[in-house]
Amino acid sequence: MTVITSIADLRELARRRVPRAMFDYADRGSYDEITIRRNRADLEAIAFRQRVAIDVSAQSLATTIAGEPATMPVAIAPTGLTGLFYPDGEIVGARAAQAFGIPFCLSTLSICSIEDVRAAVSKPFWFQLYLMRDRDFNQHLIARAQAAQCSAIVLTLDLQVQGVRRQDLKNGLAIPPRLTARNAFEIAMRPSWALGVLFGRRRSFGNLEGRMPGATGLVTLSQWIATQFDPTVSWKDVEWVRSQWPGKLILKGVLDAEDARLACESGADAIVVSNHGGRQLDGAPSTISALPAVVEATDGRCEVLLDGGVQCGQDVLRALALGAKACLIGKSFLYALAAMGGEGVTTALDLIRKELAVSLALTGCNNVQAVDRSILFDSAPAATLTRSVVKASS
Ligand SMILES: Cc1cc2nc3c(=O)[nH]c(=O)nc-3n(C[C@H](O)[C@H](O)[C@H](O)COP(=O)(O)O)c2cc1C
After folding, report:
1. Which of 78, 102, 220, 286 is the most exposed place for a label (fewest CB within 10 A)?
2. Full-model pTM
3. Which sequence positions are flagged as catalytic?
4. C-alpha 102: how far from chain center
5. What's the gap between Cα 22 and its chain centre?
6. How does pLDDT run across 313-333, given as a tens digit for each residue?
7. Which of 276, 282, 305 to mutate to test the pocket of ligand 1 (most atoms within 8 A of CB)?
8. Alpha helices per DSSP H over the chain
9. Chain Cα centroid distance, residue 344
10. Interval between CA 78 and ligand 1 midpoint (Å)
């Protein structure tokens, strides 16, 4: 493929570059995959109000996200095992985000450790935390994030139990992993991926190494992680994290208005409206459909970010119109990384930036920070009129 024009192109390249089990791990959702489909379908269903003859020559995409300046309203979402998509994937992603001027969030379950990433970048990055049963370990991770001068902790709240991605089970990406004949064949067919990743320097969960005596590799640590997700997590634990962490606290996985109110009360600086990219509660609403009620519930007390299905600048604009301050990208980032490493991530961000700029202009706006519902077709009085006229005459 010579010309990359969309995230879909990067996805297609990624499909060819990494073994099927890895591609599916990024690409697929839980159970019947209803929610992962809803994320995209509901974004696509939102129409813009096209405006003309408005001077849109003085555009600004710059904003702040959780108090930090960003060149556009997009951040990279935390994704586990990123370093298995591309050698040193987390470092490569963090560098690309830094060069672009947007936040990068490192997952607890990354291949490169907090310290590895810290040594590779000069600007602070975000660290995503799962509350594990081993609370001492949480405290240890928070201290490491602080020592690495991370600017925010993103506390993920929607993985207190694990949803099942059926395709991962079929592909042998289970705990413990199974090396199926097809996996072996897929790996053999992708020698450059195998050389870089399987024989690379970092091949395990960088942040977890040394935590369990005897558990050093991906397999043994995966077994440990599976026992660590904590179904007892409550708002008390969120308050505990708040008391341990002096920096910005972002709560990820809030999809409900009532939870959004509680999140504000817990002292969060921001929330991410997220259904984990359709990887957890199948049947949950799309994030874009949940967004307006969450924004209303927060009533300006904390910033609202959104992820789930964001694959182009138009999607970012849709989320801004419904009250999000910015979007996070998970799969779009991984496709780009798997396809072309750092160059792929920069290409993806550049595509999103250009799409956002053009779409903003065609809705008659100059500034992402001024975007509101008035750029949506449904909110235009004429749209309502047209619909009722069509209805009356049919
Ligand atoms: C392969 C993969 C791994 C993920 N790992 C994590 C993780 O370790 N921690 C976390 O909070 N969210 C994780 N997520 C969820 C993302 O942070 C984000 O919520 C989601 O990808 C957004 O939806 P999108 O993929 O449609 O952009 C992961 C998502 C993917 C696709």
Report:
1. 220
2. 0.94
3. 276
4. 13
5. 17
6. 999 999 999 999 999 999 999
7. 276
8. 7-17, 20-27, 34-44, 89-100, 114-120, 135-147, 166-170, 181-188, 191-193, 218-226, 235-244, 257-265, 287-298, 313-321, 331-362, 381-393
9. 16
10. 6
